[in-house]
Amino acid sequence: MFLLDENIPEEQRLKLIRWHLPMKQIGFDAGFKGMDDRDDVLPMLHVLPKPTFFTLDLGLYNKKFCHPRHCVAIFRVNKYEAADYIRRFLKHPKFDTHNKRMGWVVEVHKSIIKGIRVGKTEEIKLTW
């Protein structure tokens, strides 16, 4: 399941849907508007089927948010380029399946992906 934070613009969600990526978005298809990422969204991820949560909230890049049942992908890009980077991330060989993404918290930049994984101590850096 792909879940977009409400901070990702509607036009970006529609672009992803046009690319046949089934997206749900906080405040529209899931949860409610104004949900707090840490207090509301992260606990909700634990009960959804293999969710990958896409957000622009840089404060979520933290090892304490790693969990074996979900992926949190934070995008450090212009919000109007989010769809392009989400699709690019989903095609990366390290993250191109649900099972490969589970347990990760990643921060996606224009030139690199930083990541921390549940049960690991070292951060990884991958180039595009």
What's the CATH class, please? Answer: Alpha Beta
Number of strands: 7
| Inertia-based shape | globular
CATH topology: Rossmann fold
SS summary, helix count: 4
Structural class: alpha/beta
* N to C succession of SSEs: EHEHEEHHEEE
**How many domains in all?**
1
First-residue to last-residue Cα separation = 24 Å
| Mean of pLDDT | 92
Rg calculated over all Cα atoms: 13 Å
Low-pLDDT parts are none
Instruction: Please state roughly what percent of the residues sit in beta strands, choosing from under 5%, 5-15%, 15-25%, 25-35%, 35-45% or over 45%.
Output: 15-25%
Query: Biggest sheet, strands in spatial order?
Result: 2-1-3-4-5-6-7
Quaternary organisation: single chain
Fraction of residues in helices? 25-40%
Based on the coordinates given, report the CATH architecture.
3-Layer(aba) Sandwich
| Sheet with the most strands, sense and barrel status | 7 strands, mixed
Q: What does it look like?
A:
It is a single chain. The protein is an alpha/beta fold and 128 residues long. It has a single domain, classed as 3-Layer(aba) Sandwich (Rossmann fold), CATH 3.40.50. Helix content is 25%, strand content 23%. The chain has 4 helices and 7 strands, in the order E-H-E-H-E-E-H-H-E-E-E. The chain has helices spanning 10-18, 37-45, 82-91, 98-101; strands at 2-4, 23-25, 52-55, 71-75, 104-108, 112-117, 124-127. Strands 2-1-3-4-5-6-7 form a 7-stranded mixed β-sheet, with helices on one face. The longest helix is centred in the last third of the chain and has 10 residues, at 82-91. It starts with a strand and ends with a strand. The model has no long low-confidence stretch (mean pLDDT 92).
